[in-house]
Amino acid sequence: MEEINSRQLAVNLLAFIPYMFNNFIKDAACDSSVKKKFYLLMLLKRNPNQSMTYYSEQMSLPKSNITLLVDKLVKEGYAERVSDDNDRRYVYTTITDEGIGFIEETTKHFEEHILKKLEAYEEEDIESLYIHITRVMDIIKKQINKN
Questions:
Q1: How far apart are CA 5 and CA 40, in angstroms?
Q2: β-sheet bridge partners, residue 105
Q3: Residue 16: in which H helix or E strand, if any?
Q4: I need a surface site. Which of 16, 72, 101, 147 has the fewest CB within 10 A?
Q5: How far apart are CA 20 and CA 11, in angstroms?
Q6: For residue 93, what are the β-bridge partners?
């Protein structure tokens, strides 16, 4: 791929992500703490046994904020802290069945919200979005699976 095409792709990706968030997720009827809980629980589910620093970097939040958020998740029964079997100094956070339930409920909420947003789109545009977003996801998954 030519340098200019790669650069334009980078610019478009940087514009695309906030655009999608702002148009489909941002105004979902839930507060930011629910969104943060959801995102952290998704990270715990997909990337278990990572350090607080890892989750902090993934969410672009200070480690102290992640610790407070984990404290809330543990208190609410969505996560639990587990000591490393080999080294008790290390404590990991794992998602519980209740946490998975929270993800499922919140996902349904976001899906319904997005479906309402899509009602304003023409059928032809919905089909086009579906085809292209699916293709983009496939390309990204292929690259992830290489690593």
A1: 34
A2: none
A3: helix 3-20
A4: 147
A5: 15
A6: 81
